Amino acid sequence: MQKIGNNIALFFLWLFSLQPFFMIYFWSDFLYHLIRLFNYRRSVINENLAYAFPDKTKEELREIRLKFYRNFCDVMVETIKVQSMTEKQMHQRVKWKNNEYVDQLTQEGKDVIAVMGHYCNWEWIPSINMNVECLGCATYRPLKNKVFDKYMLKLRGKWGTKNFTMSDTIRELIKLRRKNVRYIIGLIADQSPGKKSLNYWTNFLNQRTSIILGPEKIAKSTKSPVVYLDMQRIKRGYYNVTVIPVVEDPVNTGEYEITEKHLRLLENAIIEKPENWLWSHKRWKYSEQRELN
């Protein structure tokens, strides 16, 4: 029965993706009113916002929450839409800036580590593979439902991007190097680390925060330059992604220097337009004081 249910769901997702953009945004608006009515993860969102912006009024925080709901719904429908999008449509809707910097590095025989956050529509970032000369790669966390895990991998790999689990990443990158295949690998680094990986704490959005060190570790172990992918919404369904250099020589950087640099770029983006970040996840579920005691 579960298999039948999964197949029916996949069929309707495919039908949904065939709709024109104005229709998917109609459904996004409908979904917005629905999750607003049911106060989707309201307590988590309110708590996160209150700690991050203690100087804002309740009305200001409420406005951010409602704008976040709008962004969240758009990301969901835009992600499903990928299944039927053409290359022309993606090129029209995601414009890349300074991507020639990546080409310059790979032409010099270097691979590139790209860091980003759950900001704007990160599921459209794999379009980078159509905008650079090297191979676009990304890491991901497998979903428990194998059918939908395969579905999401299909969406993320549509433009030629190779996807690796975190546990397989280093091994797969070594394989690419042995084949002399230059690559840029995207790493989302704003989620909470696992309990066994609470190795670094810093101030982020007005509170002590545990930070994932994966991008810095991979950059140093592979001697790869690091860039930050700054995604901004220009208007509904249209984005600019700017490639911002972080470090070119990771081996000669201090401990946590790379982490601090890309983290501040994300923090600045969130402060500028907080509604674009994923406030509904429990980013601060661990306390530094509690974990160190």
Write up what this structure looks like.
With 293 residues, this protein is an alpha/beta fold. It has one domain. It is 46% helix and 18% strand. It contains 11 helices and 9 strands. It has helices at residues 2-17, 21-37, 42-52, 58-81, 87-93, 100-107, 146-156, 169-178, 214-222, 257-272, 288-292, and strands spanning 94-97, 112-116, 135-140, 162-165, 183-188, 201-204, 207-210, 226-235, 238-247. The strands form 2 sheets. Strands 1-9-8-2-5-3-4 form a 7-stranded mixed sheet. A two-stranded antiparallel sheet has the order 6-7. A hairpin with a 2-residue loop joins β6 and β7 (207-210).
Instruction: Give the number of domains.
Output: 1
- Structural class given helices, strands, pairing? alpha/beta
Work out the strand percent. 15-25%
What is the makeup of the main sheet?
7 strands, mixed
Q: What is the CA-based Rg, rounded?
A: 19 Å
Strand order of the largest sheet: 1-9-8-2-5-3-4
List how many beta strands DSSP finds: 9
How many separate helices? Answer: 11
**Proportion of residues in helical segments:** 40-55%
Shape: globular
Regions with pLDDT < 50 over 5+ consecutive residues?
none
- How do the helices and strands follow one another from N- to C-terminus? HHHHHEHEEHEHEEEHEEHH
